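SAMPLE LOG
Freezer: B-3
Tube label: C17
Construct: single chain, 449 aa
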Amino acid sequence: MVSPGATAAVQASRGGAKKPGRSVTGTRPWIAAAFLLPALLLLGALVVYPIGYSVWRSLFDTSGNGFVGLGNYAEMFSDDRIRTALKNNVIWVVVAPTVSTTLGLIFAVLTERVRWGTAFKLVVFMPMAISMLAAGIIFRLVYEQDPERGVANAVWVGVHDTFAAPAPYPGANPRPDADLRPSGGGSFTTKTAVGTGSAVGLPLVAVQPDDVQDAQRAKPATPRPGQITGTAWLDFTRGGGGTPGKIDKHEKALAGLKVEAVRDGKVVASATTAADGTYTLPASAEGAHLRLPAANFAEAYNGIDWLGPALVTPSIIGSYVWMWAGFAMVLIAAGLASVPRELLEAARVDGANEWQVFRRVTVPLLAPVLVVVLVTLMINVLKIFDLVYIIAPGASQDEANVLALQLYQSAFGPNAELGIGSAIAVFLLLLVSPVLIVNIRRLRKERQR
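STRUCTURE (predicted):
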């Protein structure tokens, strides 16, 4: 039988003694340095030198010959464009990572128990395979103002028109010699009052061909005692000819046009033109003026100006969330898979509902993963450039400006100011550094556990 002392001596002789000139890992320091040297040289050439040169260059003027000290930094904060870029960066850092992480958490939790969860995750994660350049081009088309081209406005206009009928004849107006005059707000009113037993024609022009493509031929109205009748029609004959103010052969009726009888500023009667363009008003319209409301001629609703000055930044953030919510979902789903199910079941047994389990058990257990995702996305959005440069049109680029884009414009634009550009680069590095330090410290703590 071997004594404990002998066993300890054997173990000490095997593991305790070190050969001289070797590191803890058993490798000579100069060998380790030889293997690390290429990486260190590459790191110095691509990271350390550019950082050092940017700091040095930020202290000189545009030519690089005049030393200005911190003058470029002072000028940087006095420039309206850079202040706008800084404000937008704050919005990006607060909104984009938070929304992406929240959506990733929701997707990961909701798809955990469904059979098609893997397929859903694949679809949500798929935008990560697309480059920022391609995503920017896609969303530049999505946000097009024209509903015929932009998907966002096509959907929005479809929903709007479902609840608010579009004007039947946008842009139409009466002939200059017709008995109709503009009456404010886009409406038209007859110059003379109407009487019962009369037929009042309402000739219009400038009607879009598509609006009357399937319209019937206009029918002259028949005067009726005790009523006011008339016809609204497109007073235009293809190829020319015809008599202005008279319903000629083949001229189209304007159906669905609202006609109001107005007396002393009040509507006393109204009617809508039939398929043949005719309308009929009761005797109460006697002595009133006929008015065609502006709702008949309002321009078609074209949706929202997504890339206008007011919405350009939220719209671009939306495209970023579309790309990175899948990234957040995958990381959170991986963390969720490691959560002990016993804790969740114990909470349910104690009477907690699903919301309470999610809020008080699942989210606290996922806190380390959520911090990783949030910090990673914060670092990412501080450097955002591609999406803003591609999606924002020239008219709105100043309102969507961010620091990385301003750095590019200052350093490589038509009026290049390398001193200002270098100062922005250094300032951007200072903004990213605290987040990086926090992330490194958190990783070290995780390793020590």
